[in-house]
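Hi R.,

Here's the chain you asked about this morning:
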Amino acid sequence: MGEAIKNRYEFVLFFDVKDGNPNGDPDAGNLPRIDPETGNGLVTDVCLKRKVRNYVGLVHGEQPPNEIYVKEKAVLNRQHERAYHAIGEDISGEKSGRKGGNVDAARAWMCGNFFDVRTFGAVMSTGINCGQVRGPVQFAFGRSVDRIFTGEHSITRMAVATEAEAEKQGGDNRTMGRKFTVPYGLYRVHGFISAPLAKQTGFSEDDLQLFWDALVNMFDHDRSAARGEMAARKLFVFRHEKELGNAPASKLFDLVKVEKNCGDAPPRAFTDYQITVGTTPAGVELIELL
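And here is the predicted structure, written out as tokens:
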């Protein structure tokens, strides 16, 4: 891996969904997440990190230094065992790896091996102890620019799961279900990248470029029947000259303005919006990656 990044960054990502569910809430029957007070749609930071992880794992084939720590069917303590084996330390006689384990060395190995650990951080003190890592890259929740409408659709499957169901239907064999979609929504998410925290995890310029690539391309490799059409639309990056930054993040985010240009009609396409960015303060460079 290369040298850790030396600049602070903030970014604004716009993505949209058409006839799909961008992030269902399992506690609400998988309805699209919303702010109940405003009706704006929400997408969690965890959902976005999952898509970044999936893209990096796909592109690099789960090979170090870009393996993925938090992934489907993962057993995290097995990865912690790998770390201690890699640094030549036998923890078989230790109680959960907590007595005498070289936690600092194990943590460093985990950062060097797993992209998502050195990017997003991780709590690795579960059982076999590899410590904790505070990641340099963080997302806020994605929030739709306007209120969203949730469409509810009945769907039919021309099959049943069991013989008992078939007998009840007299051989008709139909299963009814429900599907929820957002007709159209443009979502905005803010993100932050810390250079001091990047030093602690080894998050490098190569990692940064891979992260930008993931933001631009992650929806193209995340298709499903539930998500409809989703696409990254705009990615604005604010690069600070100083390691600790040259301007408050909130002021930079306020420079990015979104206006509807479809009158009173509900927005149904990205072209129904216009996005503009104001002049950045001294010491901050605006980079438009999409």
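One quick note: The two ends are 26 Å apart (CA to CA).

Cheers,
M.
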